[in-house]
Amino acid sequence: xxxxxxxxxxxxxxxxxxxxxxxxxLPQNSRLIFVGDLVNRGRQSKEVVEYVRQHAYAVVQGNHxxxxxxxxxxxxxxxxxxxxxxxxxxxxxxxxxxxxxxYKVLKxxxxxxxxxxxxxxxxxxxxxxxxxxxxxxxxxxxGEISNYAxxxxxxxxxxxxxxxxxxxxxxxxxxxxxxNRTPPSKQSPIFNIYGHEVVEEVTLGENFVALDTxxxxxxxxxxxxxxxxxKEVIQASLKDLES
Length: 243
Description:
CATH superfamily of the largest domain: Metallo-dependent phosphatases
CATH topology of the largest domain: Purple Acid Phosphatase, chain A, domain 2
Strand content: 15-25%
Helix content: 25-40%
Largest sheet: 5 strands, mixed
Strand order of the largest sheet: 3-2-1-12-13
Structural class: alpha/beta
Shape: globular
Distance between the termini: 35 Å
């Protein structure tokens, strides 16, 4: 019996409908792994997290999950301490307001201002998802795989050149795993599949695959999936929702 293929999926950024369109193009028995940044920018972060959790898909933590934890906890505190407060100058730049709308704990009022909604269920969902995100690993080791000269590792950002830091300097390693934008060099001891840095097309290098093709960041950009076994790339975008 043929084994189920692995597909690594790039940064989703709250684009739930595009994610579903992409998954419909994959073999039904596919095993999915996400490179993080499930949330923010798009308007359906809650739905993306809920879907991934329900299916128990593998996920690594991205920098936007970090923003989600930090700002989400602050908003929860303000909601619980002062439910009549109007929140101003919120986390607009990275789409944090849209994310809180998806949990229905805030509603938009005036520009750069949001009113708190009385929604205990939404608040509990937000708390639950923050707790889940907190437990996500920084990387997943897939090990030795045929057709790859080096052990395969999935992370959010490029970590090939900093792989040894996970033991010698964990704090610095975490910074690189969430924010580094430089592709691994030929000296990298691993084959690294990652997102974070937007590329026009999925880039297959000697020691890496760069997988973030701009979904949720660039209008009309695709969400990409890379098949570990065949090295095939499958994509979906807004055009798939219009057809």
